[in-house]
Structures are given as C-alpha cells and as structure tokens.
Structure to design on (391 residues):
C-alpha cells in the first residue's frame, strides 16, 4: 500500500563501470609481498558476467604496474579491464581519471576494495562514487545497480567497442594530415538493414537516449517498434558501422512509412559517437538516392528541440528545407509539415554529391532486403522543416 504523500523509492542508477582493487579483492594475496596470488573461479565468473551485461571494468591498484599487469595477463583476465590505473598514487585520483576518460558521471562508477581506509579516501573525494567492500563481491551480480533493464547486442560487446575506440583515438592523435585523410584511413563501412528482433532493444535505446542527433525527440517503446516491424507499410531500419579497429555497433535508426509515391521518415536518430564521421549525412544521402531510384518523393518529420540543432543542419545540408510541396497532403496530419519542392531537393542532393560530403567517406553501404516486389522502402516525412526527395 502506498500512503498518499509518500514518495516511492527511486531505483539506483545502473553502474556503468566497476573499478577493482587487486590485492585481496580481485585476487587472493598481496603481489608486492611476493605472494603467489590466486584468482578464485567465482571472481572470474563475476568478471565475465558483468562484462556480458555491458558493464565496463577497470583497475585502481597500488602496485608495480608492469608486474601487476603481467599477472593479470597470466590469469587470463587482462583483456576485461579498460584504462587500468596501477601505481602508487591516491586511488581517488585513479577513479577520477577513469571516469573522466570514459566521460561517465561519478554516480555511474562503482569501486570495490578490501581496505576500509581506501574506500573512505575515495568516498571523501568522490562522494557520488559507490564503494563496496571486497566481502560484498559475492552479491554484486544480484544488486539492481548491476542489473541493467535491457542487455542489447551492443551492450554485450561494449568493452570491445570502447577498446577499439581508444586505439582509434590514439592513432588519430598521432596522425599527421587532414581529418578527411584520417577518416579515409579508417576504412569505414556502413550497413543499413531491417532491424532484427534481437536489435529492437538497442533501437529503443537509440530513440530514448539520443538527443543531439534525434530528428523528433520522440521515444518509441519496444511494443511500438514491434508493431511497426510487423506492419508491411513501415520499415524499421538499423544502421551499423565498423572500421579497421573494430565495430561501432548499431549507431542509427530509421523509421519509415512507405507509400506508393511518398516516403515518410518518421524518425532518424544517430549516436553522438559517430557525429564526427558524418554518419547522419551519409544515411540521408543514401536515402535520397534510394527514393530517386524508386521514383518516390521523400519527406521527413522534424521537431526542433533544445539539443537537436545538429540534426537540423544535417537535413538542410542534404537538401531538405522549407518550401511548398503537395506530397505531405497525402499523409495523415500528425506533425506539422513544411516541404520544399521536389526539384529543389534534387538540386540539393546533386550539390551534396558534387561537394563529395559523406559519399567519399563511406566505401560501401548495404541496403535492406525488399519485401516482396515493393520498391526500396520510402520515407515520407513531416519535418517541421520538411523536404521531398527527387521523384
């Protein structure tokens, strides 16, 4: 029973990264004292389990770095830890450094250590970091903060994607030359395909968590997405990316309503992680080409928010803009629509190809399979600034 006026307890924020102490926490024994340290099987299983849930793991330990890291490699678990901080400085500095590099709020970081003094030092300097004693390790996997509501395809390989990202950043820092040349050197590939059942959780996550590169700010639930996926008049498309360092995972979602003459982009959202690669522009250029081949008009919903100015710019650079067009009149009136003429968009798309925007960057783009004899699914859109693709 809930008493009127009482507030319901909030669920704790999900932990995004667990930072481990080593001696008598991750392993048994003290390395610097010459102990033959041992990794219990149940700790190994916990490391693997947290990794499979998409929770990153790191190390903050007072030890000789080379000796400790070599021991982690011998134990077969070094690959599970990102950004390890092993040295003789305060552990609060190590935890802070890890959080800053990951760009994680302190409230999403957890720290586990067998020494009360070390936990107290971290808690004093980083009060939002959650600290756990080593004897609590056995129950961590059962705690709500270590149990994400949804574990997506990308969650399960989050560590590998972060590790690839660190290698990519290091090479970019060392690269001497124009940014465009570095992008070419990445051998980027983009694939666009119909969403699978397994990908729907990630699609929902993109509609919910992406704000800067979200054309409408509308959240589509799992049930909404399943309904659209089953509807022959709609397409739920997922964009994935990879480069020579590894996969970026699912980085974009397109929700399309397909009509014989008009394609309606109900939602375009891309991860902020790939903004610098021009992913949004590449997707839009690809769609414009697909619509032109199908002899369909292309329009798109757009609702300005405080954060999605970058998406508006991507639409306008792709040729979308304010103007007059009759094709939105064929659509149900849900979102206010303004269209530029189809011929003006055709000119806009040509300008994009001549200037060589995203088409130069992406060597290969895979289309989704068609259903039956229908032309490539058509976006029809209602942008609060909208446009038509070439018809």
């Amino acid at each position: 029973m809930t008493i009127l006026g009482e507030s319901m307890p909030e669920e704790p924020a999900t932990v995004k990264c667990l930072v481990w102490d080593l001696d008598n926490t991750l392993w048994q024994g003290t390395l610097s004292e010459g102990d033959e340290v041992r990794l219990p099987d149940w700790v190994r299983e916990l490391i693997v389990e947290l990794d499979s849930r998409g929770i990153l793991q790191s190390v903050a330990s007072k030890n000789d770095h080379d000796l400790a890291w070599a021991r982690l490699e011998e134990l077969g678990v070094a690959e599970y830890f990102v950004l390890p901080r092993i040295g003789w400085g305060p552990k609060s500095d190590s935890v802070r450094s890890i959080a800053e590099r990951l760009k994680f709020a302190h409230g999403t970081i957890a720290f586990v250590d067998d020494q009360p003094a070390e936990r107290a030092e971290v808690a004093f300097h980083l009060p939002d970091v959650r600290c756990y004693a080593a004897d609590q390790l056995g129950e961590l996997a059962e705690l709500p903060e270590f149990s994400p509501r949804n574990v997506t395809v990308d969650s399960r390989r989050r560590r590998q994607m972060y590790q690839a990202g660190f290698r990519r950043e290091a090479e970019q820092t060392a690269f001497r030359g124009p940014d465009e040349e570095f992008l070419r050197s990445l051998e980027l590939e983009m694939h666009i395909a119909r969403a699978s059942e397994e990908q729907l959780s990630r699609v929902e996550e993109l509609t919910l968590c992406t704000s800067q590169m979200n054309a409408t700010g509308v959240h589509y639930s799992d049930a909404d997405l399943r309904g659209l996926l089953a509807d022959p008049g709609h397409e739920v498309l997922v964009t994935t990316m990879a480069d020579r360092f590894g996969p970026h995972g699912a980085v974009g979602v397109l929700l399309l309503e397909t009509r014989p003459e008009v394609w309606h982009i109900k939602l375009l959202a891309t991860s902020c992680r790939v903004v610098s690669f021009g992913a949004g522009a590449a997707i839009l250029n690809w769609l414009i080409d697909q619509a032109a081949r199908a002899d369909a008009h292309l329009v798109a919903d757009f609702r300005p928010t405080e954060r999605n100015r970058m998406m508006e710019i991507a639409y306008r650079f792709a040729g979308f803009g304010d103007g007059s067009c009759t094709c939105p009149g064929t659509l149900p009136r849900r979102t206010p629509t303004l269209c530029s003429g189809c011929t003006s968009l055709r000119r806009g798309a040509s300008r994009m190809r001549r200037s060589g925007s995203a088409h130069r960057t992406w060597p290969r783009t895979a289309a989704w399979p068609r259903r039956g004899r229908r032309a490539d699914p058509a976006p029809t859109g209602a942008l609060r600034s909208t446009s038509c693709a070439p018809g």
